[in-house]
Amino acid sequence: MNERILRVLDYQKVIDRLTQRAQTSIGKDLASKIKPSTNLEEVNRLQEETDEASQVIRLNIPVPLGGIFDIRPSLKRSVIGGVLSTSECLDVANTIYGGRQLKDFIDGLDEELSILKELVEGITPLRNLELQIKSCIDDHGHVMDSATEKLRGIRSSIRTHESRIREKLESYTRTKSNMLSDAIVTIRNDRYVLPVKHEYRGAVGGIVHDQSASGQTLFMEPKAVVDLNNQLQELYAKEKQEIDRILRELSQSIAEEEFFLSENVRILAIVDYMFARANLASEMKASRPTMNDQGIIKMQQARHPLIEMDEVVANDIEIGSEYTSIVITGPNTGGKTVTLKMVGLCTLMAQSGLQVPALDGCEMAVFEHVFADIGDEQSIEQNLSTFSSHMTNIVDILNHVDDKTLVLFDELGAGTDPQEGAALAMSILDEVVSRNARVIATTHYPELKAYGYNRENVINASMEFDVQSLQPTYRLLIGVPGRSNAFEISKRLGLDQTIIERAKSHIGVDSKSVENMIASLEKSKTQAEREYEEAHKVLLESEKLRKEMEEEWERFENKRETLYKKAEEKAEKALSKAREEAEIIVSEIRKMKTDAKLKEHEWIEAKKMLEEAQPSLSSKQKDKNVQHTSTQELSPGDEIKLLTLNQNGTVIEKVNEHEYLVQVGIMKVKVKKSDLLLVGKPKQTYQKPLATVKGSNYHVPLELDLRGERFEDALLKLEKYVDDATLAGYPKVFIIHGKGTGALRKGVQDFVKKHPSIASSRPGAAGEGGSGVTVIEFR
Q1: Which helix (H) or strand (E) holds 534?
Q2: DSSP per-residue letters across 598-643
Q3: Chain centroid to CA 490: how far?
Q4: Share above pLDDT 90 across residues of the chain, in percent, rounded to a whole number
């Protein structure tokens, strides 16, 4: 893409916002270098990456990308034999750890994330190298005594010598304090010295290493500690040599793993870059576009990416299928240029793998070239007028236009004689349209209002203007050319009606007809859009209702199937029992027949036994006290039975003539009136009960928020809540006490330890509120 086009369309501002969303320096570096791709396959791959990262973002789980550094310069130095510093070695270890954490995080997700999981599969853990570095260097970048036995011995000797030197010098501070400016031991040139008054220089004796600004104090090393200081310096030199040897070994180990470390850094940069794109999409409320190479753009409620969401006006844009060119006409106000830039910028974003700020289902095209002639680009250096600058850009554009090109013209033909400018604009448009390029052009020339009606593949558009408020609405009207509002605005501002009528008489009949036609089109367009929005709203509600009905029917079918199965099992058991009893009866009859001693009462008894052997399947009758709600009105508080779930509940409110909002256990559901049975009305009582027993159907929230409560009031509320939750039969509940000073949290924890109904408690997990929440589990 041409760098000038990227600058004109403010592409770099989007990239700057993207770069800020990256969490690592390597991710920021990768994001800052992004450029739009012209390869459809590559763009689809980038969009798939962004979509996968967005899936993870929607889980609301923090992505572990901390502790990752750009270690590539250090790796290069280690490969050519350079010795890395302790901080560089520590950055390598931290990057290894960060890569492993990210790999474990992605592998642990249940979602289908083929690209992310394939990427992190290439991360090499390198645990041994990390352990080698961490065993030598602490988190502050210091080489530890335990790095080697030799270093441990050297530092032990250093501490012994330092202690002996301090003892000797501190004896000076006690016995010769009158000779010292201050009774302290200090260091100059890495050697222990005393601050001696200038007049006692000879009395103390030794080597002068420094003096104060006034010259009255000399920092002297007494003769008694010179040998000890010399020995200490030798130990310091040995310590440095050992540390250098340790760092050399670590650098060599890092160089041996350079290939895997470089690959880890490359993968981590890509993953961070993916999540940066996903975070930017989340902030913009953007959606994934379906990409094509046929030059088709379809966006509903598209917004300019760089304008705040509470200020920008969303518009629908469609080009490339029914028509290849849009000519936006009308006065110079109203947001035509913003719309032009929005289309161009969204196209560049989509080709860079970024999601676009529009509703789901948008479609964007991959163009090989995007050209824009926008803004006033008068060139003083080249002695060119505004018109000449525009024509220079247009000539360059025409030299490269083909069917894989998107062209954006702002105020085409402006800066010269209106008639010539309009004719030139139409001719340029004809040329670009003939090459099958996608064109969006803005102009305020009235001659171009009829252009869209006389050309194939071209449609008119305009920006809506509210004459009542004298303000543009910034809404794009496709299919309606812009019209001048000069007369209406003048009238609203108080211009005499006689002057306005005289002005109208100067306008030709054709112009009046065109203006009337445009006004009619605007009215029809506005009404059609309003009716479409209402119809679309009804359609969405109908679809939602249909889906709810299908889900309800599916639940009913599943429950009916379960009941049928239970009934069959019960019937089978009853029949089996009946068969066994019948066999016994038949056996008895045969025995009686054999004995030939049958009597009347024995036959009657055998017959009775046979009748009783028939299977008896019980059927539950509805409670006589239950009244069907189809003939009776329900009121809030009424006790009901929800037939679809066979559960009792309480009416909360009436939604409409056919639906009620009811409370069933801990759930609030909206159900049809026909699915409810009235169990009873709430009992009216005026006597205050001494005690209230609440069963499992009593609604108790799953969490109690104590933030802001006084300590004593909070514990009283907690005690009552635990009793209610126990009666409701909850397995566990959440107590929100916040972090604060910790007093309330400690009070809650002390209460939990003493309560007999509580089995255990724990702090909240990362997704549950952390240490600001205590999770209680009941016995």
Answers
A1: helix 509-595
A2: --HHHHHHHHHHHHHTS-----PPPPTT-EETTSS---TT-EEEET
A3: 49
A4: 36
pTM above 0.70, yes or no: no
Looking at the 3D structure of the chain, how many domains does it have?
Answer: 6
Q: What is the pLDDT of residues 35-87, one digit of tens each?
A: 999 999 999 999 999 999 999 999 999 999 988 999 999 999 999 999 999 99
Q: In terms of C-beta density within 10 A (0-12 exposed, 13-18 middle, 19 or more buried), how is residue 53 classed?
A: buried
Judge contact between 351 and 36, C-beta under 8 A.
Answer: yes
Strands 732-736 and 703-705: parallel
C-alpha to C-alpha distance for 135 and 122, rounded to whole angstroms: 26
Q: Are residues 64 and 26 in the same domain?
A: yes
**Which helix (H) or strand (E) segment is 733 a member of?**
strand 732-736
DSSP 50: H
Instruction: Tell me if 482 sits within 8 A of 462, measured CB to CB.
Output: yes
In a domain, 689, yes or no: no
Helix locations, 23-179, DSSP H:
25-32, 40-58, 72-79, 86-107, 114-120, 127-134, 149-175
- pLDDT tens digits, one per residue of 715-737: 888 888 888 888 777 788 888 88
Q: What range does the domain containing 714 cover?
A: 703-778
* Contacts of 465 by beta carbon, 8 Å cutoff, 6+ apart: 330, 331, 333, 334, 471, 472, 473, 485
Are residues 651 and 637 in contact, defined by beta-carbon separation less than 8 angstroms?
Answer: yes
Query: Do 722 and 656 lie in a common domain?
Result: no
- Give the end-to-end CA distance of the chain in Å, rounded to a whole number: 67
